[in-house]
Automatic annotation (TrEMBL):
HAMAP family: ASADH. It catalyses: L-aspartate 4-semialdehyde + phosphate + NADP(+) = 4-phospho-L-aspartate + NADPH + H(+). The lineage of its organism: Eukaryota, Viridiplantae, Streptophyta, Embryophyta, Tracheophyta. The active site is at residues 170, 283. Belongs to the aspartate-semialdehyde dehydrogenase family. This is aspartate-semialdehyde dehydrogenase. Keywords: Amino-acid biosynthesis, Diaminopimelate biosynthesis, Lysine biosynthesis, Methionine biosynthesis, NADP, Oxidoreductase, Threonine biosynthesis. It is an enzyme of class 1 (oxidoreductase). Homodimer. It comes from Vigna radiata var. radiata (Mung bean).
Length: 375
């Protein structure tokens, strides 16, 4: 399990951002999260990059809880974590960890989720899982709160009835945050996506190796290649997910299958090419949409400006459009390059460019928003 402390996480981010993009410190305020009427929660994989972001988002959004458990692998057990001015000891994850837990946030990999997710559900816990373990299970809702909240409307925390809810893949979340409002207006028939995915999608160790490689290459040293077995700094390559017999890799097929499930549309045509780029923590995506009904770019721009969780950055005159740096540490997904697809007649197609923070909206924030809907 990858480990990244909050301080190390901030160092990685701030060390690679120009001064104007460095996150500003939030004003000190009294936290009201610890409440007797809140649910009991557990964070599984708390020492990883997404686990640490879970804590950050819980605090930022004043998520109410009466107790919180910090859970991780045996090698991380015993570590101390300070959260909202209280010290917690990381506990080893076991099936018994979920006794009395209302909501469990999982980000520890698919094998851990498959082993301990059902065990938590058996104890009456609602599990929000960030892995791919249950996403395509017909009985498990796959949810983006701004897109398909109705998929989990029958599930509530604290009832003693456990359930599984799956967090979609980060690239799917970021894409559909922008594509769905347009789909609702004009119905997407076909979507072509090219992704430019950050190191954060491969965990804390990949982020650390990208920083290390960058320093090594600039100093004329051979780069350390342990995570991807190739140079990542100043390079890009096809996503490291396994390539399937159809020539697509697993990351690309997640986009295909998850979009159909989330939109509840088995006929929508989706194709994707997923690429790793030397960016620290925010994904970018070029999205081409073909519609059943005409949709002009001005109407599309207005729709996106009013879409929850979306911000439009589309200044053609100054050539200012979304960038990974601008959305790092931000909750909203940014959309720009909104333009008519000239290869399609009759306003039947659009091109858009989307950027979103992979750790935040692509993982932790989406999971916390799901948890908020359980209250």
């Amino acid at each position: 399990m990858a480990s990244l402390s909050v301080s190390r996480h901030n160092h990685l981010l701030s060390g690679l951002l120009p001064a104007r993009h460095k996150p500003t410190s939030r004003p000190t305020r009294v936290r009201m999260s610890l409440r007797d009427d809140g649910p009991s929660i557990a964070v599984v994989g708390v020492t990883g990059a997404v686990g640490q972001e879970f804590l950050s988002v819980l605090s930022d959004r004043d998520f109410p809880y009466r107790s919180i458990k910090m859970l991780a692998s045996q090698r991380s057990a015993g570590r101390r974590i300070n959260f909202e001015d209280r010290d917690y000891v990381v506990e080893e994850l076991t099936a018994d960890s979920f006794d009395g837990v209302d909501i469990a946030l999982f980000s520890a990999g698919g094998s851990i989720s498959k082993k301990f997710g059902p065990a938590a559900v058996d104890r009456g816990t609602v599990v929000v899982d960030n892995s791919s373990a249950f996403r395509m299970d017909e009985k498990v809702p796959l949810v983006i709160p701004e897109v398909n909240p109705e998929a989990m409307q029958h599930i509530k925390a604290g009832t003693g009835k456990g359930a599984l809810i799956a967090n979609p893949n980060c690239s799917t979340i970021i894409c559909l945050m922008a594509a769905t409002p347009l789909h609702r207006r004009a119905k997407v028939l076909r979507m072509v996506v090219s992704t430019y995915q950050a190191a954060s999608g491969a965990g804390a160790a990949a982020m650390e190796e990208l920083e290390l490689q960058t320093r090594e290459v600039l100093e004329g040293k051979p780069p350390t290649c342990k995570i991807f077995n190739r140079q990542y700094a100043f390079n890009l390559f096809s996503h490291n997910a396994s390539v399937l017999s159809n020539g697509y890799n697993e990351e690309e097929m997640k986009m295909v299958k998850e979009t159909r499930k989330i939109w509840n549309d088995k006929d929508v045509k989706v194709t994707a090419t997923c690429i790793r780029v030397p960016v620290m923590r925010a994904h970018a995506e070029s999205v081409n949409l073909q519609f059943e009904n005409p949709l002009d770019e001005d109407t599309a721009r207005d729709i996106l400006k009013n879409a929850p969780g979306v911000v439009v950055i589309d200044d053609r005159e100054s050539n200012h459009f979304p960038t990974p740096l601008e959305v790092s540490n931000k909750d909203d997904v940014a959309v720009g390059r909104i333009r008519q697809d000239l290869s399609q007649d009759g306003n039947q197609g659009l091109d858009i460019f989307v950027c979103g923070d992979q750790i935040r909206k692509g993982a932790a924030l989406n999971a916390i928003q799901i948890a908020e809907m359980l209250l």
